[in-house]
Amino acid sequence: MALKKIGAQTRKMENPPSILSYYSIVGPKEGEGPLKDYFDLILEDDLWGQESWEKAESKIQEECVRYAIDKGGLSSENIDYLIAGDLINQITPSSYSARQLSIPYYGIFGACSTMTQSLSLGAMLIDGGFADYIACAVSSHFSTAERQFRFPLEYGNQRKMSAQWTVTGAGTTILSSTGNGPYVKYITTGKIIDPGITDSANMGSAMAPSAIDTLVNHFQDTGLDPSYYDLILSGDLGYVGKDILMDLMKKKGYDLSKNYTDCGVEIFDKFEQDTHAGGSGCACSAVVYNGYVFKEMAKGKYNRVLLMSTGALHSTMSTQQGESIPGIAHAVSIENTKE
Amino acid sequence: MDKFNKKDYKKYSDKKVPNPPYLKNMLIAFLVGGIFCTLGQIITNILKSNGLDNEMAAAGTSISMVLIGALLTGLGLYDKIGKVGGAGAAVPITGFANSIVAPAMEYKREGFIFGVAAKMFTVAGPVLVYGIGGSVIVGLITLLLR
Fold it and tell me: Which of A157, A161, A191 has the highest number of chain B CBs within 10 A, making it the mutation to test binding with B?
């Protein structure tokens, strides 16, 4: 019997896992953005003394996990699981980071939705009684993503207006079976929705329908109204996807005009930083949650938030073969009080 | 989510994407492309005034422009010119040099064989294949028609 299952896609935590600590590292460009005062570490050089961008990304993720564990007053032996992912082929940045950390490791891939995927799995493992401490970590790097998905860095081309800018950085959340919150209360796992978009430079449009589906299911399953939350955040729909989401949700009778925004919209200043449709990448939502949201929850600005990272599950190969882009979104609700 | 028509969604979502500033982009492309072409003409004139015939001067100009494009790429400037100049930076032969040097630099870390050499033509490769292939076909047709 799945006792914790409510509705079609949502699980309610019986003993809500607590967020013990969190840490965020960003690159220089993100460190000049509107949220610069919230990040724990801003790198001056996005190669961080490494020989390649991939090695740099791996180091960023590894250090981020170490700092988060330190901040929680733990050592790596205390951590039962590391659940981590990134965007690069076979998620090597995460696996090489895990190679150094020596923590039992699940490598996961959910493209840019990985942060809430990791939080969902971590919360279920803890609530299921399988672990006391879990590190949920993701990373992305502009330069590793750019060379894998698009063009070499020095190639002179113009970006489309719908194109998004991959965030360089990493975010780690340490979940704990005990603690004083904030707590993970509900998780709503998304289905893949593929609206048929084939342009990989328009991921906001490709992901918006899956985000809408997950949100609607969350509200139906829990019986909650959008106004229940102080803040609803999607991962990296960007300006295009955010606009679509708000528009179509309104048509379905959900008013998101007061408390909804998107991490990809918030992380860069689109006029000053020329990032077109906004930020993207695993780290886009991860650094906003672990940098901005959890800090503001601790201060009491927000008490109930719904985090929903969004992913575009395509590859360069699938795009070249003319396949459309499958979208996914996982929602996790975080509250300052247990009840 | 309700079943929706993928064609309708594409039309709907396309409307949500802002248009690029076409007029501004075209003007800058015209200027940047014009600057490269003027530079080429200057080189041609210098070569000619130093005694090269038309054919030799043209070849010398192409070689010089490729060098300039490669140099600007190596100095990390061509991507910035390309971002502003668009087609004005991509169409001249300097853009062709950029499309070869950029991946060569990018994939240096994968080694000189599977990195630099194998990946050098990832961007320019299609242009070379179909450009050279097309010229062979046109050449054959011309030969047959004579």
Answer: A157
